[in-house]
Amino acid sequence: MAQSLAGGAAAREPGLLQIAGLIAARELRLAVRHWDQVAQPLIFFVVVTTLFPLAISPSLTELRNIAPGVVWVAAMLASLLSLESLFRPDVEDGTIEQWALSGQPLPLMLLSKTVTHWLLAGLPLVIMAPVVGTALGMPMSVWPVLAGSLALGTGCLSLLGGIGAALTVAVRRGSVLLALLVLPLEMPVLIFGARAVDLAMHGEAVAGPLNLLAAVLLLCLALAPFAMSAAMRISIE
Amino acid sequence: MWLWFYKLASPPYAYAVAAKLRPWLLWSAIALMIVAAYGGLVIAPPDYQQKDAFRIIYVHVPAATMSLSVYVVLAVAAGIGVIWRIKLAHAVAAACAPIGAWFTVLALATGSIWGKPMWGTWWEWDPRLTSELIQLFLYLGYMALRSSFDDTQRADRASAILAIVGVVNVPVVKYSVVWWNSLHQGPSISKLGAPSITSDMLWPLLTMMLAFMLYFAAVLCDRIRSEILKRERNASWLSGVMSTRAVGT
């Protein structure tokens, strides 16, 4: 009897991919229902880049020099802004506590959540970046490198930021603290990303910084889920 | 073999050991500092290019080395605290952070003072300087995270995770001079086989580094003791220590 019960439980035990899929589906459904919140970081990204022509100079030749940095810094800030909502609502209503108690691997669940978050917050930036870049005077030939570096880079930002978000989620008014913790860790990503775009604008080889970005992304993918889960267990206890 | 380790992890014992070690560490640090300062400022010959201005390295290099080493000590202590759940290790990590931050500030400030006559600028956005600045931000972030929790135990474990993640920056700072073609000069002393400076310049520098380490250990003893006082303020052994001292004096 006991054996058959255990066997039944094992049969109903969801596989790892199924867990990740269920969480991703839930996240996407929530995002569709609150699509205006999803759009906010993207609007922020466009607004911030608009500030630079106003503050520096409307001349495209001047803007072109700083365009890679401007786009990258704006993307970094937009990604930081979206991190605030990565875990907070689910921690406040107890969802993540249930995840932690469910006996399923918490690192995997948080990774799935973060990847979905990237699809909603990072990918729109990647798609929007060429438009913004062109407005700042970037030639069209740079588009692939700009989008590619941002695709790799925003992934790193989401994962590194996820660690910071998990650490600060229990802290009241944690958003300034989150920026203070996460930005120093993200600086290498910014350096490589902006450098790749800058090299592309001068028509030079970009494989070096892009490879480094990909390496950082793989490192984050491998290790960040465990750091996130350890941080989350502290935050929700 | 592990007995001393367990013993050291108990706050009353560590409190007493830190108190005993502190004068030895502090006085030997001061003695070595005087010797090294004499060697560096008087005996060492002026540099053929930089003349006497190079002498600031006797503060700059040890401070910069310590800014990284202290962070490693901090991260190792935080790791021990997380893995073996030793409260004292967290206290050590907490005690390291402000000291390390000040070493980083000292390294940046002396570098800036040296940079003005040598490079003609107070600040240069060069990889070494920038990554050292990031190191300072990491210390500040660590301290900010720690202070944002009311509960010491949660602060301990949350900040430990940040400290461990932040370790990746240490090799980046250390090798930034080698990896990037930078304005900052390459390391002078790590090439043990053939150091690129003369022995008259080298020994005061090494002595000064040792002095800084001892000084760090001495200040760490003080800070650990004050951390223990703060954390164990309700413990009975502490009121025992305090009352015997009050009777003694």
Shape of chain B: globular
First and last CA, distance of chain B: 37 Å
Shape of chain A: elongated
Q: List low-confidence stretches of chain A.
A: 1-7
Major interchain interface with per-chain residue totals: A-B, 20 and 22 residues
Structural class of chain B: mainly alpha
Number of helices of chain B: 9
Question: How many domains of chain B?
Answer: 1
Structural category of chain A: mainly alpha
Helix share, percent of chain B: over 70%
Unreliable segments of chain B (pLDDT under 50, ≥5 consecutive)? none
Q: How do the SSEs of chain B run, as a string of H and E? A: HHHHHHHHH
Distance between the termini of chain A: 36 Å
**Number of E-type strands of chain B:** 0
- Quote the average pLDDT of chain A: 88
Compute the number of helices of chain A: 9
Give the tally of structural domains of chain A: 1
In short:
The complex is a heterodimer of chains A (237) and B (249). Chain A has helices spanning 2-12, 16-33, 35-55, 60-92, 95-101, 106-135, 143-168, 175-201, 207-236. By secondary structure, chain A is mostly helical.
Secondary structure: elements and pairs:
The complex is a heterodimer of chains A (237) and B (249).
Chain A: H1 2-12, H2 16-33, H3 35-55, H4 60-92, H5 95-101, H6 106-135, H7 143-168, H8 175-201, H9 207-236
Helix pairs in contact in A: 2-6, 3-4, 3-6, 4-6, 4-7, 4-8, 6-7, 6-9, 7-8, 7-9, 8-9
Chain B: H1 3-8, H2 11-43, H3 57-84, H4 87-119, H5 127-147, H6 152-166, H7 169-179, H8 199-231, H9 236-248
Helix pairs in contact in B: 2-8, 3-4, 3-6, 3-8, 4-5, 4-6, 4-8, 5-6, 5-7
